[in-house]
Amino acid sequence: MPLIIEMRRFFVKNILFVVTINILVKPIWAYFIDRNVQIRLVPASYGTYIALLSLSIIFQTLLDFGISSYNSRTIAQDPDKLPTLFPAMLSARLMLIILYMGLAFTWGYAIGYRGWELRLLLGVLLIQSLNSLVAFIRSNIAALQRFKTDGILSITDRLLMIIICGFLLLYPPTARLFNIQWFVMAQVFCYFIAAVVGYIILRRIANVRLRFSFHGPTILKIVWQSFPYALLILQMSIYNRADVMIMERICKDGKVQADIWAAAFRQMDQLNMFGLMFATILLPLFGRMLSQKQDVQPIVKLCVNMLLPLSFMVAIAGIFFSNDIMHLLYHNPRYVLYATRPHAYALVFQILIASFPGWCMMYVYSTLLTANGSLKTLNIIAFAGVVFNLLLNFYLIPRYEVVGGAITSFATQTGLSLAFIVFAARIVKLPFSINWILAHAGYLILAIGLCFGITTVLHGTNWVIQLMSFGMLCLGLMFVFRFVSVGSIKQLAKTPNP
């Protein structure tokens, strides 16, 4: 029991630190920089950027090839392997970057991009390449259980972008000339600096050196062992990002549809940041616990009790207050597209935000399966998700455009999250508790009723007051349902015995 308490305390303190510093930085990037760029630029320009970004993410399998996930799991189980494994891993990564950029650029040309669009694609591919390099360095730091250091590194690129892009957007001479190319090149520079900083940090905490090992058999072994992870990443990229690329290519006003999607999905990106932070810590933590035959159920339950009620609260609030939220973010005289289609923005946001609980559960249970090495099961589930997603996208998008893509995204994420939960419970042998499931279902029903009651009783009151009232009542409900208790908080806050 003391070991379980220590693991809980270790996890909670690290996740709270990582969440806090990310809350302080990443929303500023999303809403004061990225959103303002979208508002300032014409929809066709930003819509093209979003479509190219989705294309680059789909090809990201070649870029990462599962190396980060494989590396994190391997080093977490045996940290002594890091000095010898790092050069070969780094060499494999650089070779994959060259392959990735060549194939993705060729595909972009093949599907019709030309001129400035191809130049923009090259910049986007550089962003993804450098981002993957940072992710690889971070996977080593996280595998060494240095989660706070990893958390600081996770915001380095965004912090630099806020400073540089903020200056370009606010300084009058540059603000008048600001364009999407500047935006892309600023990101390239910031990711490069983050990669350099990450390597310096890793060198200080571990005995690694910047050298390469292009030993064919070793690299081929790494690539082969990473292949199941790569296949999983490819399939997840397809069912997460194919929708915006499909609508941008087949809809009559595809760039406009992609712009609407980007405006709504920006909120999902920021919210998914929390689930991703959990996954970043959980993968090496689960990996080490499973290798040492420790019981992971208490950590799984703790994560679900933290994430699921909050995700229900966020999803319900997003659905009920969608018009107010989107009006606050995009009602700007310079952003003409929103003025002509405000209801489309709100509707797409409502559908996407409804999938947030599914995203959160996916981050917990798919990470558990990954740490357990259940890659075959994960890939079968992901393949089913790809087939379902593409069939539904090609049916709904020609008929309902961006709304059809949002419906497909919701159905895919919700269905996959349920599959991950079922198979993780079977394979890792998590205990089944009907009372626990009913407690979360009861919380959801009561939260919906609370939001409906608040918006009815306080009708005419400022929507922010209604939203805050709903949030406080939902947080109180978490204590009522004992997802969080005062006793557990005190226990976690205690200083561990030396």
What's this model, at a glance?
It is built from 21 helices and no strands. With 498 residues, the protein is mostly helical.
Question: Could you characterize what this model shows?
Answer:
It is a single chain. This protein has about 500 residues and is mainly alpha-helical. The protein is built from 21 helices and no strands. It has helices at about 1-40, 45-60, 60-65, 65-75, 80-110, 115-145, 145-170, 170-175, 180-205, 215-250, 255-290, 295-320, 320-330, 335-340, 340-355, 355-370, 375-400, 400-425, 435-455, 465-480, 485-495. Helix 10 (about 215-250) packs antiparallel against helix 18 (about 400-425). It is globular and about 65 Å long. The two termini are about 15 Å apart. The mean pLDDT is about 85.
Characteristic key phrases:
globular; 498 residues
Topology order in helix (H) and strand (E) letters: HHHHHHHHHHHHHHHHHHHHH
Instruction: Report the uncertain regions.
Output: none
Provide the structure class. Answer: mainly alpha
Fraction of residues in helix:
over 70%
Report the average pLDDT across residues.
Answer: 85
**Envelope shape:** globular
Instruction: State Rg.
Output: 23 Å
Instruction: Tell me the major beta sheet.
Output: none
Strands, total number? 0
Q: Count the helices. How many?
A: 21
Our estimate of the beta-strand percent is: under 5%
State the end-to-end distance: 17 Å
Please outline the helices and strands.
Layout: H1 2-40, H2 43-58, H3 60-64, H4 67-77, H5 82-110, H6 116-143, H7 147-170, H8 172-177, H9 180-205, H10 216-250, H11 254-291, H12 297-320, H13 322-330, H14 336-340, H15 342-353, H16 356-371, H17 375-400, H18 402-427, H19 434-457, H20 463-480, H21 486-493
